[in-house]
Design brief:
The protein has 249 residues and is of the alpha/beta class. It folds into two domains: 136 residues, Alpha-Beta Barrel (TIM Barrel), CATH 3.20.20; 110 residues, TIM Barrel, CATH 3.20.20.150. 45% of the residues lie in helices and 18% in strands. The chain has eight helices and eleven strands. The chain has a seven-stranded parallel β-sheet with strand order 1-2-3-6-7-8-11. α3 runs parallel beside α4, α6 packs parallel to α7 and α7 crosses α8. It starts with a strand and ends with a helix.
Length: 249
């Protein structure tokens, strides 16, 4: 299971007890919302230290964040795209290193969905690779974000997937999105996963193995049986890819 640590640090009472019960039954991964890794305000070192303590307390193996910024003299409550420039690479990588030094462990960054680019001296995948390599951190691979961006910014999602530093991938997200128009998709996590995204997920497994995978669903929740059906779809794709690997061996 995955939680945003900001929502659960120091939570007590009934919710705290319920969370502890879940953490005893399931592995808990952390996906942050407010680290502001691409921003200019100082890293919230107190928050990062609290996340480290939370990871130790609940034995959380993975902490990831978005390769975006989300604050500027206050929280923006949105995930804003970072310019694809060499200057931004150095800026973000330095902040990632600071976070990793505080935690004493690696973090992962998610390839984000975005709807406009302020400046681009390199491609999106070149930017992602440069940040991850300079910071020496991991990749949270979001296959729905690849699909959404491929429609909105008119590129081939399969070529993009192959261009990413998949050797650094440790975790995968899959989700549904909203069709605003034929050429505009919005990353909402509020709908069923569509076939092209399932196809990208299978291709990702073939390239980097059947990594731990989270089905994201934030609202418009269907009956539990339908939701678990999508979880089973993930397992079936993983089993298919693993069977293919054995047959080729």
């Amino acid at each position: 299971m995955e939680v945003a640590p900001e929502n659960w640090i120091n939570v007590g009472g009934r919710f705290g007890r319920q969370f502890r019960e879940l953490a005893e039954r399931y592995t808990i991964s952390l996906h942050g919302l407010s680290l502001n890794i691409g921003g200019f305000e100082p890293i919230d070192r107190e928050l990062v230290a609290s996340i480290g303590e939370f990871m130790d307390e609940f034995n959380c193996p993975i902490y990831t964040e978005h390769l975006t910024y989300c604050a500027d003299d206050g929280h923006l409550y949105d995930l804003m795209p970072i310019p694809f420039t060499e200057e931004a690479v150095h800026h973000v990588a330095g902040r990632v290193k600071e976070v990793q030094d505080i935690l004493g462990r690696r973090i992962g960054l998610e390839n984000a969905s975005y709807y406009a680019v302020s400046k681009a001296d390199m491609s999106e995948s070149e930017f992602i690779r440069a940040v991850l390599e300079e910071a020496d951190c991991d990749l949270l691979l979001d296959v729905n974000n690849i699909y959404v961006n491929s429609i909105n910014h008119r590129y081939d999602p399969h070529e993009f997937l192959h261009s990413l530093p998949l050797e650094r991938a440790v975790y995968i997200h899959v989700a549904g999105h909203y069709d605003e128009a034929e050429d505009l998709k919005v990353d909402t996590h509020g709908a069923d996963v569509i076939d092209p995204v399932w196809g990208l997920l299978g291709e990702a497994y073939r390239l980097c193995g059947t990594l731990p995978t989270l089905l994201e669903r934030d609202f418009n929740l269907p009956p539990l049986a339908e939701l678990l059906g999508e979880v089973e779809k993930i397992r079936s794709i993983q089993a298919q890819v693993e069977a293919e690997a054995v047959s080729y061996a």
